[in-house]
């Protein structure tokens, strides 16, 4: 007997004997079970011989119940599917109370499903999103593996808080009520588990740089943590970041890498997850129909993904972007919340979205930002006021990638750290890289959930990670 999953069975020729286990989506006319095992968006229809099946068993075939079915795979007698299973034996593995089961066969709001996140992957939308998330993860590893990168596991607990990418979560085993104190009355972290103050990492970049400077091409793909109180549809307190880091690569190479990488992973899912993408595409088209014309998407999801894969990202310097924004209609008509007046202003998401969605209408790479709005480790340009930074902005998402060429000159780096009061003692190992065989090197960070949002068309980041962690929320 072959044990094939539903995805395989649906593509199979008739088979005399099959066994399948899954969860009942619907049971109609005491005869037709729509069964799903998570392997595909599609259910397999299982036809029950109700005349020869116990009434007590029929009653237990309810939405959500787990069942085991043995039968014959035959050409379907009805419309809507090529094959179906003629049920010979049916066993209820786990009952589901139809009165209380939250995932009824009807439309549920995403808010409701977030509260039932442990069961939401039993819906078409969330199973499609999470299969795509899984497939995208694989595509990420495949891309780097195919291109000679080493996968590096950077530490999750870190003793350095110098990265400056965001507020951190402290990791401590000290007694919260009665911590040991130093003579001057501060908490004595020498008594803490690691003998120092430690936090959850905001980024694996600094450690990745150390391995790039020996293994050449490395990447990390792991969880990162930021304790910012930003309750938006694009921010999580725990998110996954992909960070490649490459020796002897400059900013132009970094932009090429990021663009090629993003096109490659999007292409991968366009090819391998057709059903799920098509389902999400249609979901959005239906949603669009309920909106006024002006709010509808110009491109469908599939058109948008193809557009990104087929067109060059527009590369624009920060200085050019500021000129465009300063002269833009929303700036002149004072429609932006933050008006752009001078060179040096930090760009807000309203500005990023204007550039991407209204002005260029394609993904944009902004580069050469003012030094004082970017991190200490970015390579200072010859003008002495801009750094070799780049951000990639995507339509509907805003910033999806942040990266830079790193400062490889010991003296310049030390000067910068001194100005920002970053301890040389703490980052002695980072400075060593600039003492022993320093070289041009670059890398970037891609927020994985923002990529999943873009690919699935989901508009809230809480809906593209299994169990979102956000301010005031760590359920499940
Ligand atoms: O721009 P960020 O802060 O860059 C860094 O952390 C660098 N160390 C990366 C590097 O050069 N290796 O973050 C990178 C990306 C952002 O562009 C965004 O996509 C995502 O991480 N990101 C978040 N995603 C979800 N929730 C948050 N709170 C995020 N903060 C950043």
TrEMBL record:
Localization: Cytoplasm
GO molecular function: asparagine-tRNA ligase activity; ATP binding; nucleic acid binding
Domain Aminoacyl-transfer RNA synthetases class-II family profile: 130-466
BP term (GO), one: asparaginyl-tRNA aminoacylation
Catalytic activity: tRNA(Asn) + L-asparagine + ATP = L-asparaginyl-tRNA(Asn) + AMP + diphosphate + H(+)
Domain of life of the organism encoding this protein: Bacteria
EC number(s) from the headed UniProt entry: 6.1.1.22
CDD domains assigned to the protein according to its UniProt record, in alphabetical order: AsxRS_core, EcAsnRS_like_N
One GO CC term on file: cytoplasm
Keyword vocabulary terms for this entry: Aminoacyl-tRNA synthetase, ATP-binding, Cytoplasm, Ligase, Nucleotide-binding, Protein biosynthesis
Assembly notes: Homodimer.
Family: Belongs to the class-II aminoacyl-tRNA synthetase family.
Name the record gives this protein: Asparagine--tRNA ligase
Gene encoding the protein: asnS
């Amino acid at each position: 007997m072959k044990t094939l999953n539903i995805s395989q069975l649906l593509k199979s020729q008739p088979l005399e004997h099959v066994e399948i286990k899954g969860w009942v989506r619907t049971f109609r006319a005491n005869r037709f079970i729509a069964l799903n095992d998570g392997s595909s968006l599609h259910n397999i229809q299982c036809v029950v011989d109700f005349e020869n099946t116990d009434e007590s068993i029929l009653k237990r075939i309810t939405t959500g119940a787990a069942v085991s079915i043995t039968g014959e795979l035959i050409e379907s007698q009805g419309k809507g599917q090529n094959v179906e299973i003629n049920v010979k034996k049916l066993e209820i593995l786990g009952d589901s109370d139809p009165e209380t089961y939250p995932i009824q066969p009807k439309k549920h709001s995403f808010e409701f499903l977030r509260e039932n996140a442990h069961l939401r992957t039993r819906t078409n939308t969330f199973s499609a999103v999470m299969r795509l998330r899984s497939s995208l993860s694989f595509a990420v590893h495949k891309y780097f593996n195919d291109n000679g990168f080493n996968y590096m596991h950077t530490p999750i607990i870190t003793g350095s808080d110098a990265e400056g990418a965001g507020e951190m979560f402290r990791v401590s085993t000290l007694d919260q009520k009665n911590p040991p104190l130093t003579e001057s009355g501060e908490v004595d972290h020498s008594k803490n588990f690691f003998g120092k103050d430690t936090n959850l990492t905001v980024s694996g970049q600094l450690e990745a740089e150390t391995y790039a400077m020996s293994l050449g091409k490395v990447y990390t793909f792991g969880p990162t943590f930021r304790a910012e109180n930003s309750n938006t549809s694009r921010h999580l307190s725990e998110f996954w970041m992909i960070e490649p880091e490459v020796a002897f690569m400059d900013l132009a190479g970094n932009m090429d890498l990021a663009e090629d990488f993003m096109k490659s992973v999007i292409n991968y899912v366009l090819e391998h997850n057709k059903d799920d993408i098509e389902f999400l595409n249609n979901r959005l088209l239906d949603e669009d129909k309920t909106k006024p014309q002006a709010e509808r998407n110009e491109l469908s999801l599939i058109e948008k993904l193809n557009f990104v894969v087929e067109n060059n990202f527009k590369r624009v310097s920060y200085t050019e972007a500021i000129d465009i924004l300063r002269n833009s209609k929303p700036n002149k008509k004072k429609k932006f919340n933050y008006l752009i007046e001078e060179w040096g202003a930090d760009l807000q998401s309203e500005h990023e979205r204007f550039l991407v969605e209204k002005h260029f209408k394609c993904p944009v790479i902004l580069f050469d930002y003012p030094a004082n709005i970017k991190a200490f480790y970015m390579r200072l340009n010859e003008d002495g006021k801009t750094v070799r930074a780049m951000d990639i902005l995507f339509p509907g998402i805003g910033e999806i990638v942040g990266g830079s060429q790193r400062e490889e000159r010991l003296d310049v780096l030390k000067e910068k750290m001194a100005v920002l009061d970053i301890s040389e003692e703490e980052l002695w190992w980072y400075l060593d890289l600039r003492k022993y065989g320093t070289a041009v090197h670059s890398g970037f960070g891609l927020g994985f959930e923002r990529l999943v949002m873009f690919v699935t068309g989901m508009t809230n980041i809480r809906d593209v990670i299994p169990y979102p962690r956000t301010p005031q929320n760590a359920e499940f």
